[in-house]
Amino acid sequence: MGGITGAAVGEGAITSGEVTKNIIEKTGTSGDYTAGRLAAVPAGLGTAGISLISGRVASKAGVADIDVAVTNKIAGTSTDLVAQASKKGLVRSTLTGSATEATEELFQGGQEKIFENIGTGEHPLTDVGGDAVMDKVRVLTLLSQCLVQTYNLHKHRKKKNLR
Question: pTM (2 decimals)?
């Protein structure tokens, strides 16, 4: 399994668990097995699909994807993100990577909320575009991309004894 597929599967599994937890908390059905919890399955599949597409788009664009970078690190097949970013410039690569990740998170957050709403019996579009989804997109995307790029730049400079 490649890094892009591994990242997609991991994100899908995490999403299924998170949506299930949210449904349980909102419905107060801890210990009960209700059909509403099944809404977490398509939420996880949707997130995995979106992640797979986003990872492939980022790869074709020559941009580092944070989810793929983490998966590759865990698998021991790390990519030198600084070398990859230097092909197009570090700032441009960071901004492009952030835009790709933000778009991915926007679609993922929206569809996850829809399936959570279905699982709790609420209208599917309740709070889909709410502040919680948008804040998650802005903060996590920018921080994750900047941290990965900064860490790898530092690591590269240290290896080359640059300041």
Answer: 0.77
